[in-house]
């Protein structure tokens, strides 16, 4: 079992474009998402980790491309901007292909700080920067929802 895990670890590499995991022996230069010609390269969703990318992919709703930061800002843990894959995101933006960046970081202090940092960095470059909405889970009674989630739900409301 440990040998199989070791082999798996050695066969996985990061996509040079988005930092998603890909099979070293796939014969492709980029992961399947970056290689897909049907995806919109002008819209990039920025996520903290590969698990979030696959959670969003499971929905089948997002048809753009991704950028995986491989973490989030956390000064208390010594994780600053240089520890994340922000430099690679800047390089992708310089090509002029990215018109909108959707920030899908966690609704934690660290995730919010990361989203704010990225927004402040990329807005002056002419990239439209948006943030995913946060709301109330389906099936949950409103009386049990925390105040911050209620506030964000009201702020992110939409017309019916």
Based on the model shown, name its key terms.
160 residues, alpha/beta, Dna Topoisomerase Vi A Subunit, Chain: A, domain 2, four-stranded parallel β-sheet, two-stranded antiparallel sheet, 6 helices, globular
Helix content bin: 25-40%
What topology, given as strand order, has the largest sheet? 4-3-5-6
Q: Quickly name the level 1 CATH class.
A: Alpha Beta
Order of helices and strands: HEEHEHEHEHEH
What is the radius of gyration? 17 Å
Q: How would you describe this protein?
A:
- This protein has 160 residues and is an alpha/beta fold.
- It has a single domain (2-155), classed as Dna Topoisomerase Vi A Subunit, Chain: A, domain 2 (3-Layer(aba) Sandwich), CATH 3.40.1360.
- It has six helices and six strands.
- The chain has helices at 2-11, 32-35, 50-59, 86-94, 109-122, 147-155, and strands spanning 12-14, 21-23, 40-47, 64-68, 100-104, 128-131.
- The strands form two sheets. Strands 4-3-5-6 form a four-stranded parallel beta sheet.
- It is globular, with a radius of gyration of 17 Å.
- The relative contact order is 0.11.
- The model has no long low-confidence stretch (mean pLDDT 90).
């Amino acid at each position: 079992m440990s040998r199989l895990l070791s082999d798996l670890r050695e066969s996985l590499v990061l996509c040079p474009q988005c930092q998603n995991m890909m099979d070293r022996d796939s014969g492709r230069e980029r992961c399947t998402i970056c290689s897909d010609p049907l995806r919109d390269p002008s819209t990039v969703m920025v996520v903290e980790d590969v698990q979030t990318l696959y959670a969003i992919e499971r929905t089948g709703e997002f048809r753009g491309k991704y950028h995986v930061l491989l973490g989030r800002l956390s000064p208390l843990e010594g994780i600053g901007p240089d520890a994340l894959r922000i430099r690679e995101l800047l390089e992708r933006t310089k090509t002029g292909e990215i018109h909108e960046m959707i920030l899908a970081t966690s609704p934690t202090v660290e995730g919010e700080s990361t989203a704010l940092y990225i927004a402040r960095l990329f807005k002056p470059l002419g990239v439209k920067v948006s943030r995913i909405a946060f709301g109330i889970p389906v099936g949950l009674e409103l009386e049990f929802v925390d105040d911050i989630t209620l506030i964000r739900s009201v702020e992110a409301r939409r017309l019916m």
